[in-house]
Design a protein that fits this description.
CATH superfamily of the domain at 12-120: Spore Coat Polysaccharide Biosynthesis Protein SpsA, Chain A
Order of helices and strands: EHEHEHEHEEH
Shape: globular
Strand content: 15-25%
Radius of gyration: 16 Å
CATH topology of the domain at 12-120: Spore Coat Polysaccharide Biosynthesis Protein SpsA, Chain A
Low-confidence stretches: 1-7
Length: 163
């Protein structure tokens, strides 16, 4: 469990920005709730959805979940920023509503971040999943674990990524 030993507080905020996400939001939430690392907060920031997103979110009764609804649609990137503003923990995971985490993701990321204070970003390879849940492509960041400077990380990893 990744907690601050002094204050016993949760160190991970998982943030799901969402707009009209009723097609995948359930899978995204489940992937967070089913993590091997159990100590986190889950923020869901709705950007004025007009579908069943909020009804689906309301089905979950878990004290780790906090739901926010914007007063107006901020746009995609601004809603990601809103997630960061609302996160109260030391580490933030931004998880778009149509993405899922593998079951050990939070455990693996947080272990690296806690063990070395010089590490400021954890990033992983990812699968592209089609609308039927089938893995269709693996995008590998690197063949092995790698530590790099901040400039190198953003230059190599942030291509096309709005985060």
């Amino acid at each position: 469990m990744i907690v601050d030993n002094v204050s016993n507080k949760v160190l991970i905020s998982v943030c799901i920005p969402v707009y009209n996400g009723d097609n995948y939001i359930r899978e995204s939430i489940e992937s967070v709730l089913n993590q091997t690392e159990r100590n986190f907060e889950l923020l869901i920031v709705d950007n004025c959805s007009v579908d069943q997103t909020l009804s689906i979110v309301a089905e979950y009764d878990d004290p780790r979940i906090r739901v926010f609804v914007n007063k107006w649609n901020l746009g995609g990137v601004a809603n990601f920023n809103r997630c960061i503003e609302l996160a109260k923990r030391e580490f933030i995971v931004l998880l778009p509503h149509d993405d899922v985490l593998l079951p050990t993701a939070l455990e693996v990321f947080s272990k690296e971040l806690v063990s070395d204070p010089q590490v400021g970003l954890a990033y992983s390879s990812y699968y592209i999943i089609d609308g039927k849940g089938k893995r269709s492509y693996l995008s590998a960041a690197y063949d092995e674990d790698k530590v790099m400077t901040g400039n190198e990380a953003f230059t190599k990893l942030a291509k096309g990524c709005p985060i």
